[in-house]
Structure to design on (375 residues):
């Protein structure tokens, strides 16, 4: 996968080596200090909300005051203003709790998904991201890639020249986040995951390329804490809940592919398996169209680029006259079945038939790799 971005200068590789460590303090978790300060790598409309989810735009709490450009400045300004409780979408006494299973953390909120969905979109916009895709039916929000500007060291030259050097310095790193909402009775579970890429020199040293790097669970936790503050929690409450969840020693069940590689066994009961597989699907960047928890199905679209067959990009003439070998994603299901305290994961076609071909095997292998990160 490639991303069209300007190559960083060689000296910037050294800057990324000197980047800050993962967030650990209360201030870093909740945004009082700028260890996380994103600038979207994609220009365009930063906020797009479906027509039936536009009520949040009228709430002045989520409009940045004129002249405020940094998250810490915004938080300080908001803290200094008294807000009428009636003007809050989520009051400060709304029940929010950080839960954990293995390395996986999520936020449980005493509110319905249709209230939270537009607020989470605005949250990401405030963090410096543009929205790439949003699917209210599937409860998914995906940001575009953005650069963490806080990882560019501050110096007297950069401070003096300000925005001029902001166009020159580059951290050589990009992140994008996926947020998934799950209904749990009267409450909503919110999961945050991300992908990380780093700019590295090619083998011959003549150019640079973007490669995927390891996901940082601490960064997901920091964003959960910030989301809690955004939704009305006190900073100390958010930080302490994330810390408490981080200290949990519970480990998730192991995932093992069957001998014929057509099924994936997960040593977890269905509820926990559903949660972990959902995050693994997010991390794998499968396109989720819908899901049915009662049936155990995630409906995805998947383009298999490893078949060995040459795939042509669809042209205008191809669309008119139906050229062959064009890229066409498959509509599949990732199916979970309960097996008495453990779960079995298989891949189904549109008709619900179990697939055992190479495409299904590749999907299960990717899921198995991503499940390792949530143990």
């Amino acid at each position: 996968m490639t991303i069209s971005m300007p190559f960083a200068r060689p000296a910037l590789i050294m800057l990324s080596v000197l980047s800050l460590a993962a967030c650990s303090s209360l201030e870093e978790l909740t945004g009082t200090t700028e260890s996380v300060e994103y600038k979207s790598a994609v220009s365009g409309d930063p906020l797009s909300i479906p027509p039936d989810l536009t009520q949040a735009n009228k709430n002045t709490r989520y409009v940045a005051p004129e002249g405020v450009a940094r998250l810490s400045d915004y938080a300080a300004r908001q803290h200094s203003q008294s807000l009428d409780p009636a003007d809050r979408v989520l009051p400060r006494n709304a029940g929010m709790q950080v839960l954990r299973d293995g390395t996986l953390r999520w936020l449980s909120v005493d509110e319905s998904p249709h209230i939270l969905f537009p607020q989470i979109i605005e949250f990401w916009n405030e963090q410096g991201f543009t929205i790439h895709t949003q699917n209210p039916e599937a409860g998914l929000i995906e940001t575009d890639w953005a650069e963490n500007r806080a990882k560019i060291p501050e110096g007297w030259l950069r401070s003096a020249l300000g925005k001029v050097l902001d166009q020159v310095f580059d951290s050589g790193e990009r992140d994008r986040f996926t947020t998934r909402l799950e209904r749990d009775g009267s409450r909503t579970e919110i999961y945050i995951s991300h992908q990380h890429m780093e700019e590295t020199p090619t083998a011959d040293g003549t150019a640079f390329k973007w490669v995927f790097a390891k996901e940082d669970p601490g960064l997901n936790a920091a964003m959960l804490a910030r989301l809690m503050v955004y939704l009305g929690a006190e900073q100390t409450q958010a930080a302490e809940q994330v810390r408490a969840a981080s200290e949990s020693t519970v480990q998730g069940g192991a995932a093992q592919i069957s001998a014929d590689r057509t099924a994936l066994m997960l040593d977890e009961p269905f509820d926990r398996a559903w949660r972990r597989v959902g995050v693994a699907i997010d991390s794998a960047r499968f396109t989720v169209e819908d899901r049915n928890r009662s049936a155990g199905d995630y409906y995805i679209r998947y383009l298999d680029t490893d078949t060995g067959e040459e795939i042509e990009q669809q042209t205008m003439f191809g669309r008119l006259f139906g050229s062959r070998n064009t890229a066409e994603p498959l509509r599949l299901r990732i199916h979970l079945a309960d097996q008495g305290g453990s779960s079995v994961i298989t891949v189904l076609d549109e008709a619900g038939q179990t697939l055992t071909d190479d495409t299904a095997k590749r999907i299960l292998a990717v899921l198995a790799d991503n499940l390792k990160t949530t143990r």
